[in-house]
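Usage example:
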Amino acid sequence: MTLLELKGVSVHYGRIQALRDISFTVDEGEVVALIGANGAGKTTTMRTISGLLNCSEGSITFGGQDITKMKAHIRVVHGISQAPEGRGIFPGMTVMENLDMGTFGRKDRTGVGRDLDRVFDLFPRLKEREKQYGGTMSGGEQQMLAIGRALMSNPKLLLLDEPSMGLAPQFIRQIFRIIKEINNQGTTVLVVEQNANQALAGAHRAFVLETGEITHSGTGKQLLEDPSIKEAYLGVG
Amino acid sequence: MSMTDGPTPLRTAAAEQAAEEREASSKAAGKSDLGQRGRRKSGSFSDRWHALSRQQQWAFLVVVVILAYLLPLFNPPIITTEPGNNFALACFDMARFALIAVGLNVVVGYAGLLDLGYVAFFAVGSYCAAMLTSPDSPFLHIPYLWTIPIAMAVTMFFGVVLGVPTLRLRGDYLAIVTLGFGEIVRILATIIPAMKGQVGFQNVGHPPGTEAGGTPIFSNSNGVPWYWLTLTIIIIVTLLVGNLERSRVGRAWIAIREDEDAAEIMGVPTFKYKVWAFAIGAAIGGLSGALFAGQVGFVNNQKFDVTTSILFLAAVVLGGAGNKVGAILGGALVSYIPLRFTAIAEYKYLIFGIALVLIMIFRSQGLLPARQRLLAYGRTALNKITSRDAEPKDTGIPPAGPEGRVAGQRGAEA
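Running the assembly step on the lines above writes:
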């Protein structure tokens, strides 16, 4: 079933058009990857879906409901949660306080304990550091915290913006394993990545974004084998 | 207050109790806002403070408050501002600045919105009191005490009017717009005939009551009752603001200050909370403006310039943005220093400028840094709901002593 659908979405920064007529869908239970080079519009797409940017044309539907004009903080309540690029954690708050902020929009307090357990199961490191200030943690831990915080709102759709950015290779593999696990637990994941290899390997379906347009789409496997993609993104020619 | 819903959890973990103790003690203090980060920096005073039991902290605070009330009566020799300035009036001025700093701290310290035009709200409050009580004013006249809530309501309205269009801006842009707003209010006071520009309003009202001889208790020359009134208001406002700070609203403000986009995608209606911060800060500014107008008894357009605005901001930054006790201290200091050292009063901006530079270099969070554990209550609530930490574990935090247990239990009872 289609969970998220973008139809003909265009986004402008002033006069500069960052996204041109983007259309794609994310089905429930999927991991969908969005890959592309710098400036292709990946983060713009994410911020448009989470509601931090408004689209100038087109429409976004989520769970059958038109959310094009919906404010970002209400989209969270409806089940879209984003771990922003560059982590975007609250540096002056402890890990626990950061996670607590993730529940800000929740109406049901009863599920909080279960989600906290889930986050600590996925990221035992966060449990160890629960009283540490977010800003004093390493990049990888901050990334874990950002993902964990996004999960605290118990989202239907988790948006991950470059979860592997600036991380060591072993951390990257770990993060992608965790993404898979989150997906297995029933959360749909849309991940934006530059690390195409890992992203494509872990994704059910993927789209390639180039200068604001979708140029390729297919299953993760198809794209991994596509020669033009190999050349452009995977570094093997 | 915010020890919210959920069943009472088992609390066996030493770590949790230690955390509880810290929270309970800072709640008991209501004024001691030094968090871990602050503690690391500000060393022994806060360590000693947190080592005290709840009762000791309360006792200490009561003594401090009583001493503060008695301050103008003692007129202590070295601290006094005489002969240059009447000490009781100086005390009132300090209290007025402290109140302004508490209000501005809500905007700048909690929500992180740089407001360079705060004096505008102070001016609106002053003019409200003046125009509703002064015989020079053509409008209806009401008893002075009624002007205080009216001044607050009107400034709050101005806060919202200014906030709604400008709070879509961020950082520097917001600062510039607020700066402009501050000037607009001052200039309007000059050019609108009803506001009487430089001529101003004389004989602004004051609270009722006369002494045996027939002179009013709240006269312009007697600072003591005005000081007591303002001090009482500061205590009330600080308690209210403290409650807000520890509530959901406070959490939202801190999140906005730390990262606005992240706060928005966590589900915080950032715009709404920013307008609230503006409105509440404005109301407190208007309140202190009304008090000022009453005490001085004269309001014209000369007292509301940009430098005053900057002085208010300096008070907050000096004391420690985000810490209400720091703001009170900063406000009092900024007012006290030029009154005490009259020889250097002319150079006060120079001196505050240098002081700010030094503060920024050596103690960038202000004299009393903001408590970083503002979300402590949210976290407690979370722990309560989830009843986590059932098994004791070694986190390196020393086990809570008897006082800690008392505080922890109290936290659980509350």
